[in-house]
UniProtKB/TrEMBL annotation:
<dbReference type="GO" id="GO:0005576">
    <property type="term" value="C:extracellular region"/>
</dbReference>
<dbReference type="InterPro" id="IPR002472">
    <property type="entry name" value="Palm_thioest"/>
</dbReference>
<dbReference type="InterPro" id="IPR029058">
    <property type="entry name" value="AB_hydrolase_fold"/>
</dbReference>
<keyword id="KW-1015">Disulfide bond</keyword>
<keyword id="KW-0732">Signal</keyword>
<protein>
    <recommendedName>
        <fullName>Palmitoyl-protein thioesterase 1</fullName>
        <ecNumber>3.1.2.2</ecNumber>
        <ecNumber>3.1.2.22</ecNumber>
    </recommendedName>
</protein>
<dbReference type="GO" id="GO:0005783">
    <property type="term" value="C:endoplasmic reticulum"/>
</dbReference>
<comment type="similarity">
    <text>Belongs to the palmitoyl-protein thioesterase family.</text>
</comment>
<dbReference type="GO" id="GO:0005794">
    <property type="term" value="C:Golgi apparatus"/>
</dbReference>
<dbReference type="Pfam" id="PF02089">
    <property type="entry name" value="Palm_thioest"/>
</dbReference>
<feature type="signal peptide">
    <location>
        <begin position="1"/>
        <end position="20"/>
    </location>
</feature>
<dbReference type="GO" id="GO:0006898">
    <property type="term" value="P:receptor-mediated endocytosis"/>
</dbReference>
<dbReference type="GO" id="GO:0005764">
    <property type="term" value="C:lysosome"/>
</dbReference>
<dbReference type="GO" id="GO:0008474">
    <property type="term" value="F:palmitoyl-(protein) hydrolase activity"/>
</dbReference>
<keyword id="KW-0325">Glycoprotein</keyword>
<keyword id="KW-0378">Hydrolase</keyword>
Length: 312
């Protein structure tokens, strides 16, 4: 393997460590399930995490089962075991991951009447891709917890900041994020959004540019996303991991510079309604929530008060 691939994989691991801050628990009309009247819930973890980590996804699954007795909760495993699941969050092509999940959901008899979905960090935008590409079985409500729907640009906190390691990773991604080699091997490169190289991003991003309709408008994507009853986005106001944090509400940096941000409503994506988000907003399907915590840090009380109502 050439040194460039090794260096990019090292960069991916370091970035993953920042984006994979473990979920910290400090302390829509449903589709009825024929067994117990609940709506199944599908979870997709963030990078560096796994389906079954007892301190993160395992804890969330257990909490949901306690709060909604009888609910079927599927915490997605991308691969044959927990080790593969974690590694695939670093290096398996996102489009392949989405296809794997679509197949898994289609074969799960307990989901065929519809399900709700909750994605943590990068799992948020990955589940949105599922909603856009795979309408059967139907996703009813999508909750994105710290998801990066316009991608990321920058590493505000990562190991070795004082030794300028973050700047080295930024430079590596800036110089090679949109090469075929890096796009195919590094998950975070597929949602790396460089506002200073907007044309490169639109032309070569294998995942984010596609699901955000940057090249062409796929009417199927637009139609499928609008089938959601609710699209809930959670922003962490003290987030030191995601840059810019506005991406958690579908905002981002304005093209051509890297300082000034714009909201979803100010973006061309919204004004041109390429994804149907403006129509969803007018229909009161978009929900913007925030919490004062750092990335993926919230209390059980906040979760129960703010997110549970969308899942009952």
């Amino acid at each position: 393997m050439c040194l460039c691939v090794i260096s990019f994989k090292m960069a991916a691991v370091l970035l993953a460590l920042t984006l994979a801050a473990p979920v910290l628990l400090v302390a829509s009309g449903p589709v009825p399930d024929t067994n117990n009247g609940t709506v199944p819930l599908v979870l997709w973890h963030g990078m560096g995490d796994s389906c079954c980590n007892p301190l993160s996804m395992g804890s969330i699954k257990k909490m949901m089962e306690e709060e909604i007795p009888g609910i079927y909760v599927l915490s997605l495993m991308i691969g044959k075991n927990v080790v593969q699941d974690t590694e695939n969050g670093f290096f398996l092509d996102v489009n392949t991951q989405v296809s794997m999940v679509c197949s898994q959901l289609a074969q799960d008899a307990r989901l065929q009447g519809g399900y709700n979905a909750m994605g943590f960090s990068q799992g948020g935008q990955f589940l949105r891709a599922v909603a856009q590409r795979c309408p059967s079985p139907p996703m009813r409500t999508l909750i994105s917890v710290g998801g990066q729907h316009q991608g990321v640009y920058g590493l505000p906190r990562c190991p070795g900041e004082s030794s300028h390691i973050c700047d080295m990773i930024r430079e590596a991604l800036n110089r090679g994020a949109y090469s075929d080699l890096v796009q195919k091997h590094l998950v975070q490169a597929q949602y790396w959004h460089d506002p200073l190289n907007d044309d490169l991003y639109k032309q070569h991003s294998l995942f984010l540019a596609d699901i955000n309709q940057e090249r062409v408008v796929n009417e199927t994507y637009r139609k499928n996303l609008q089938q959601l009853q609710k699209f809930v986005m959670v922003k962490f106001l003290q987030d030191t991991v995601v840059d810019p944090v506005d991406t958690e509400w579908f905002g981002f940096l304005k093209a051509g510079q890297a300082k000034e941000t714009e909201t979803l409503q100010e973006s061309a994506l919204y004004r041109e309604d390429r994804l149907g988000l403006a129509a969803m907003d007018k229909a009161h399907k978009l929900v913007f929530l925030s919490t004062d915590g750092d990335h993926l840090q919230f209390s059980r009380e906040w979760f129960t008060a703010n997110l549970l109502p969308f899942l009952r």
